[in-house]
Amino acid sequence: MTWLGNVGTHLLACVAACALALPAMAAEPGVTDNEIVIGMFAPLSGPLIAYGIQPVNAARMIYDDVNAHGGIAGRRVRVVVEDDKCTGSSLVAAIKKLVTIDHVFLLHGGSCTAALAAAREFVTREHVPLVMLNAAGDSLVFPPQREFFGSFQSTQRVYGAALAEFAAGPLKAKRVAVIVHDDDYGKSNLASVTATTERLGGKVVAVERIPPSITDVTAPLLNIRAARPDVIISGAYPAPAVLIAQKYAEYRMTATPLLQSTQGIPTPSVFAKNVGDDTALVNFYHTWAFNDIAEPAVHDRWYGMYRAAHPEDPDPGGFMVTGIPSALAIVATLRRLGCDVTRDGFVAAMDGLDLQTDLMAAPLRFGPDRHDALRGVRVVRFDGRTQTVQPGVYSWNGQDGN
Amino acid sequence: MLMLKLLQAAASGVVTGCIYAMIALSVVIIYKATEIVNFAGGELVMVGAWLGLLLVGYFGLPRPVMLLAVPVVLFVLGAAFDRLALGRIARRRPSRRLEHATLVVATIGLSNLLKGAVRGIPYTQEVRRLPPLIGGAPIFVGDVVLERQDLAIVALAAVVMLALWAFFRYTLPGKALRATSQNARAAALVGIPVAGMRMSVWGLAASLSGLAGVMLAPKLLLTPDMGDVVTLAFAAAIIGGFTSLPGCVVGGAILGIMQNLVGTFIAPQAIAVTPFFVIMLVLLLRPQGLFGDTVGVRRV
Fold first, then answer.
1. What pLDDT, in 10s, does the model give residues B284-294?
2. Within this chain, do residues A63 and A101 fall inside the same structural domain, yes or no?
3. Domains plus CATH for chain B?
4. Does A402 reside within a domain?
5. Which residues of A are less than 8 Å from B147 in CB distance?
6. A11 and A137: one domain?
7. pLDDT tens-digit profile of B100-144?
8. Domain check: are A205 and A349 in the same one?
9. pLDDT, average across residues B55-64
10. How many structural domains compose chain A?
11. Both A87 and A112 in a single domain?
């Protein structure tokens, strides 16, 4: 019996109760006697496709499993998927189509915070609950907005705080250099690193803000080298993260630990191959919100489930799991609603979510004043071949850099 | 320390500048020969890079073979585009002015086609890297670090540029290409096959782009969007003068060095705006670029 298995025991009672309640319910978009329609959107094409296809497949795997076990209160979950390309215009077009043509009950998607921000006005006006797939979503959850729930693999504030705490703790670093992008992501990451470092008695000695499209990281690495930090914390995206690691090795800075936020290293083996020099990774750490690296049983369970659900994709990357927690949260919330499924009810129920799963490093929690789900992550040492999870979970206190 | 930063930034800037220059050359060659700005230049770079990775990483071919194969394949691709798309469009032109606009749009079409085709390959979903042309420990000149890979890039770029110069100056096909670009009608009158020459120009430019991609890929990594680097090549071409081949080389070097100096001594955020600032400066002070033909107006 899976974690969903106990549904069967209550199914008949629930269906009977719903049958009595249905005539009294007002017609809710995307909800019928037999199904609940969820509108998913993610980058299924374009440069950020890696953040979309497998996470969407993973989320669908959860919904398929729900359906295989009788659905939710007798209703099957039906998913309509659109490609948002991680651009604002495509994303808005996708969700408008999902809401106005497909009449979905709720929106589940988004891998890019900046693109999601473009949907703010429409979602707020239509009062459609939007549960983010795997976007960090800092600008949409700080301050919390009624319809938006997200940050299931944590926010940049959490990554920044976790790495700063790890630097000050086990690494005993006092002088911290930070390299982030000159966008919202970088701003949040930097604010959190700075506040946490200063709270723990350290000092940020160099701050390098780089454009995401940077082609040569010579300049920022020269500046960091000149500042002589004890650690370097990077919030760079995948391509710049590789360039930084290469240049860091080239300038023989590897005695100084390099700490990278998750978004720069979606698949560690590919990252190591791209860096192409194992000496660059002798002192390399990254954040990870999941327990699949630390606990092989957890890895085998979820990856096995994915392979069974998607035999056409037998070798999923590390980002596959990022599609799971948001789907679990949606299913848990719909279960709490039972047969009385309304958008207002869903939002209220999400505000009370407190979900502990074996997959995540920390519980997924929401509240009226908190719409970022995850506030604790692990730190992993990666030498190019082996990933070694460091002891403990590093958490953001909800205040540093906020 | 200040001098070290200056020298290191300049050395690294020369390397990226060489790559910008190669891409700029491919754009300028086409512009000189056909008066068309090739907006697919970046995507040809991208295709060359992925092809290089395929040949080395999948088929296990030696790098010298890859360095020969990529330009050849790209030559065929560029020539085929001219023959199958541009040639047909030109033959059906309603007017010369419309022909130019249509041909430019066709290059945008090629750009999207190539990008879409590469994105459709599952392997390209992750950022990839072509193994360096030359490995080994870096070389130290004083405290300045020089990667062997970077030296190989500069050497290869220099060889290609010299070969290109010699080709245009001393060979019959090169002279025919120059004649075609200067006056296509006159060239046709003296027996030069203009259509064939234009096809060759497209092939040659695509080859250059492919080589630039192979040089770029170990440094800047491979993504289906890596062709966006063509913006910097346009900047290099404008700085040097859009009709000048040596200007492209100088423009590329200036741009690469400027980006690093601005990033080091002003702010890394300013790196992205540096090319556009330099373009504005050049257009204001010397609109034809550093080596471009002077724009003149003559009363008739």
1. 888 888 887 66
2. yes
3. 2-285 (1.10.3470)
4. no
5. 250
6. yes
7. 788 889 999 999 999 888 877 777 777 788 888 787 778 888 878
8. no
9. 89
10. 2
11. yes
Banded model confidence at residue B93, pLDDT cuts 50, 70, 90:
low
ipTM score of the complex? 0.76
- Which residues of A are less than 8 Å from B268 in CB distance? 182, 208-211, 214, 219-220, 223
A247 lies in the same domain as A229: yes
Considering only CB atoms, A226 lies closest to which of B1, B256, B262, namely B1
Domain that holds residue A345: 7-154+293-371
Q: Sorting pLDDT into bands at 50, 70 and 90, what band is B147?
A: confident
* Cα–Cα distance for residue pair A133/A153, rounded to 1 Å: 9
Low-confidence ranges of chain A (pLDDT < 50): 1-5, 7, 11, 20, 22-24
What pLDDT does residue B217 have? 86
* CATH number for A386: 3.40.50.2300
User: Which residue of B4, B14, B126, B133 is the best one to mutate when testing the A interface, meaning the one whose CB has the most A CBs within 10 A?
Assistant: B126
Residue ranges of chain B whose CB lies within 8 Å of a chain A CB: 1, 5, 8-9, 12-13, 16, 119, 125-129, 131-132, 138, 145, 147, 219-221, 223-225, 228-229, 232, 256, 259-264, 267-269, 271-272
Chain B contact present for A227, CB below 8 A: no
CB contact under 8 A, A219 and B228: no
